[in-house]
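User: My instructor asked us to take a sequence, write out its structure as C-alpha cells, and then describe one feature of it. I'm not sure where to start. Here is the sequence I was given:
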Amino acid sequence: MAEHIRDIRLVVLDMAGTTVADGGLVERALAAAARHVGADPEDGIDHVRATMGESKIAVFRHLFGEEARAQAANKAFEAAYAELVDGGEVAALPGAREAIEELTAQGRTVVLSTGFARPTQDAILAALGWQDLVPLTLCPADAGGRGRPYPDMVLTAFLRTRAVDSVREVAVVGDTSYDMLSGVRAGAGVVAGVLTGAHDADALRAAGATHVLGSVAELPGVLT
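Assistant: Let's start with the prediction itself. The C-alpha cells for your sequence are:
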C-alpha cells in the first residue's frame, strides 16, 4: 500500500460531504423535489440516504419510475438546491481548499466530481469561489451520463487529464459507499472514505475503502 500512496499523481475528490459541507441541503432539496411531483418527502428517504453519491436523476428514476416524473423531480431538485446555494447555505468543509492547494503543490492533479447536474455543480463552485481551483470538474453528463457507483467519472478524469499512466496512480476520495465503489471499479490505487458526510466508517470499508479519514484535510499528509 505504501508504494501505491507514493505513486498517486491524480486525485478525484467528491464535493458534497467531502469537500463541501452538506448540512442536510441535499435532503432538503430532495424533499422539495418530491413535493413538486406530488410525492410524500418521507417516502423513499432510506433509499435516498443509502444512495447518497449517486447521480440524482438515477435516484428519481428509482423512486418515481416514469421518466417524465423523474425529470420533473430532477429539475425541481436543481432549482431548490440552487436557491439554497444562492441563500448562502453552502460552505467549504474546514481545510478542504487548503488540502486541494497542498495536493496541487505536491505535484498532484486534482479533479472535483459530483452526482449533481452541471448547473448545480457550477453554482456551488461559484458560491465558493472555486471556479479556477482545479483544472477539471466533472458531473455525470461529462462521463456519458452514468454517475456513481459506476467508475465512469474516475475513468474520464484519468483520460482527460492525462496526468498518470495507470489507474493505480489515482486516488478516489468521497463520503459515501457509492464513491468507494466507483473507485474500486475504476481500479484506483487509493480509495479513501471521509467521515464528514453521509456514511460511516463501516459502510465505507464494506464498499472497499482502503483508508478512512476524519476529513479531506488529512489527505495530503496520508499521500505523503
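For the description part of your assignment, you could build on this observation: The chain has two domains: 2-22+91-223, 25-86. Try explaining in your own words what that tells you about the chain.
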